[in-house]
Design goal:
This protein has 308 residues and is an all-alpha fold. Helices cover 79% and strands 0% of the residues. The N and C termini lie close together (7 Å). Pfam families: Lys_export. Keywords: Membrane, Transmembrane, Transmembrane helix.
Length: 308
């Protein structure tokens, strides 16, 4: 198992070692990441189509994802509420960022589009099975693994060239405290949920270690534990992002740390526009640092936990 961890982590590390100074090349890498995610999620849907008793398995997937989400969210909200009362971080809605990159509705539509890709994969797998007698399920899993290695290398390159110097990350005590609290409370939730889901302790921790990065957590977990558990991880982290879009406008003025932290890894990208619009400029660097740290931690932590 440890050798498998090294094999999967290697492209992530190699990608992180590559400096990119050409803006056009960086834009190409970003498009490559997005394209790889869509391809893998489509293949994950095709793999789901190959499960015996598909309807029953999908019902089980939804129930497990809902239970996992409820337990982890309860731990997150309690821990982040405690932190927000002690951290002294306040939003400044009088100094909002003009022209935020996208609306929360557009971002939510982008999230749901990824669900549509998984559904399309299931339909495609069933259609191929009906037409040819084989849904190419094994081929889909093999292709997904190959694209996964490419995706990890590109993500490593993204993280290296994100423009976040280590000094800036370490010195932002608010972002560091929020990231550590969100990570620790998520892992506690995963540990509590594991026996309820009839999972090993490390599998429960791995499912909780996506920290909202649904497009990656489902892929990594699915590669190791199969498409069903990959779907559970995907839906759990997707639900976090969707709830974050609702909570941020409601809570950021009174509990800024809670609102920023609950978004998890998405606070540096998908939920950042909502944080900008409702929390002002003071919250932006905190959200970026917190999201960056969680994004940096999530892939190696998931892979390490699944190797135990």
């Amino acid at each position: 198992m440890l050798s498998g961890l090294v094999i999967v982590l290697l492209p992530l590390v190699l990608g992180y070692l590559v400096p990119v100074r050409d803006a056009r090349l960086m834009a190409l890498i970003n498009r490559g990441v997005n394209a790889s995610i869509y391809v893998i999620l489509l293949l994950m849907g095709m793999s789901l189509a190959g499960l015996d008793d598909l309807a029953g398995q999908l019902s089980r997937l939804g129930g497990q994802a809902l239970l996992l989400f409820a337990v982890i969210s309860a731990c997150n909200l309690a821990a982040l509420w405690w932190l927000s009362r002690r951290l002294g971080l306040t939003a400044d809605p009088s100094r909002v960022v003009a022209g935020a990159p996208t609306s929360k509705w557009a971002a939510m539509a982008g999230s749901l589009a990824l669900v549509a890709v998984v559904v399309a994969g299931v339909v495609l797998g069933l259609l191929l099975e009906w037409l040819t007698g084989s849904g190419l399920f094994a081929t889909a899993e093999t292709l997904a693994e190959g694209v996964l290695y490419l995706l990890l290398a590109l993500i490593g390159c993204q993280l290296r060239n994100s423009g976040m110097p280590l000094r800036q990350i370490v010195l932002n005590r608010f972002g560091l405290a929020i990231a550590l609290t969100l990570a620790a409370s998520s892992l506690v939730g995963g540990l509590l949920a594991a026996p309820l889901l009839d999972l090993a302790w490390n599998e429960g921790l791995a499912l909780a270690a996506g920290f909202g990065w649904y497009s990656l957590s489902g892929i990594l977990v699915g590669d190791q534990l199969g498409p069903l558990m990959g779907g559970v991880a995907f839906l759990n982290d997707l639900a976090r992002e969707l709830l974050a879009f609702v909570l941020i406008p409601l809570l950021i003025r009174g509990h800024a740390a809670l609102a920023i932290g609950y978004g998890g890894a998405t606070s540096m990208d998908f939920t950042l526009p909502v944080i900008q619009q409702h929390g002002g400029v003071a919250c932006v660097p905190v959200a970026v640092v917190s999201g960056f740290l969680l994004s940096l931690l999530s892939p190696p932590l998931i892979l390490f936990l699944l190797s135990l």
